[in-house]
Specification:
alpha/beta, Rossmann fold, Glycerate kinase, domain 2, five-stranded parallel sheet, six-stranded mixed sheet, 2 domains, single chain, 367 residues
Length: 367
């Protein structure tokens, strides 16, 4: 009997990581029903992070009143551990691009105040260890909305943190961040991610100027220079704001999202039981080399001496090379190239079929 661990990310726009893991396991089971199958869906800190963490068990799904990126009241999701000591929050759950229709995107006006309100609700509930995923934002406000919701005072010419929630001093905040962009400039928050949030070229210039002024004020208020720190540009500058507030927390760290999620779901312990791990994501491409989920799984598999296969909805040579350097083999989900719209419409069926093909390749599992 072979023990197979399924540890994929989501196929964005199509299936959650939970759905991907289930589909792969279903296909494998059809061919090798006697194998032990472990399902550990993963995420990188963006949308789907809460679902991946919750799937590991031991969590209670919670909601709290908050607002979306353009100020409409919503119920925002978060997780509380069964013992009440830990929590997980997704910025995308309140301030995410998925909260808005295409015609509702507001690159100049969208704010992260909803995420700040969620964090305040968690503090009210008692947990003092929070994992915060900051991927998928609709905002480029530099985290000003979070500061406002937590008691700061942010204006165009002044930032006053005297009223900042004092409970932050007892909080351990682990920020799941899968980008290394600085706050400003051609590789900064506005230039790199503004367009996907609806920003025109003139909007990008305006946002970068706003962030530069904001950076001057917040760095002066906190005594920390963080604008060039890797990850400062994450989530439209949320990384920058949190880094500047480091001294206000008991501990604060920005860490690769896959590493934080892997720790929450105890991936290493499950890898230790496995003979084979199958990971994957919607696209395995040049971005895979910069810390995406498949790379994180492959790195752990190599360290543990476990065979690793990565399946991709789309596969490009740069992604194949990045994973091959860690001993992982890349397999396209589709045997023949198909248009993205067709791949999305097909749902889970291609993943089930892909897993069936993998299960028949006995050389991959040492059988």
């Amino acid at each position: 009997m072979t023990t197979v661990l399924f540890a994929p990310d989501s196929f964005k726009g199509s299936l959650t990581s939970v759905e991907v893991a289930r589909a792969l396991a279903e296909g494998w089971r059809r061919v090798r029903p006697d194998d032990e199958l472990l399902l550990t869906p993963l995420a990188d800190g963006g949308e789907g992070t809460l679902a991946a963490i919750a799937a590991a068990g031991g969590w209670i799904e919670m909601t709290a009143p908050t607002v979306d990126p353009i100020g409409r009241p919503i119920d925002g999701p978060w997780l509380r551990s069964a013992d009440g000591m830990r929590a997980a929050v997704e910025l995308a759950g309140a301030s995410g691009l998925s909260r808005l229709r295409l015609d509702e995107r507001d690159p100049l006006g969208a704010t992260t105040v909803g995420t700040g309100l969620l964090l305040r609700a968690v503090l009210d509930a008692g947990p003092r260890r929070i994992v915060l995923g900051i991927g998928g934002s609709a905002t480029t406000d530099g985290g000003a909305g979070i500061l406002d919701a937590l008691g700061g005072w942010v204006e165009s010419e002044r930032i006053d943190l005297a009223g900042l929630d004092t409970r932050l001093a007892g909080l351990d905040l682990f920020v799941a961040c899968d980008v290394t962009n600085p706050l400003l400039g051609p590789t900064g928050a506005a230039a790199t991610y503004g367009p996907q949030k609806g920003a025109s070229p003139s909007d990008v210039a305006t946002l970068d100027q706003r962030l530069a002024r904001y950076a001057d004020l917040l760095e002066r208020a906190t005594g920390r220079r963080e604008r060039d720190t890797p990850g400062a540009g994450a989530a439209g500058g949320v990384g920058f704001a949190l880094l500047c507030l480091t001294d206000r927390f008991r501990t604060l760290s920005l860490e690769p999202g896959v590493d934080l999620v892997a720790a929450e779901v105890d991936l290493d312990a499950k890898l230790a039981r496995a003979d084979l791990v199958i990971t994957g994501e919607g696209r395995i491409d040049a971005q895979t080399a910069f810390g995406k989920t498949a790379l994180g799984v492959a790195r752990r598999a190599l360290a543990g001496g476990v065979r690793c296969i990565a399946v991709g909805g789309g596969v490009e040579p740069a992604g194949v090379a990045a994973l091959a350097s860690l001993g992982a083999e890349v397999v396209p989900v589709h045997e023949h190239e198909v248009p993205l719209s067709e791949a999305i419409a097909a749902g889970a069926a291609p993943l089930i079929a892909c897993a069936e093909r993998l299960a028949r390749r006995a050389t991959w599992i040492g059988a």
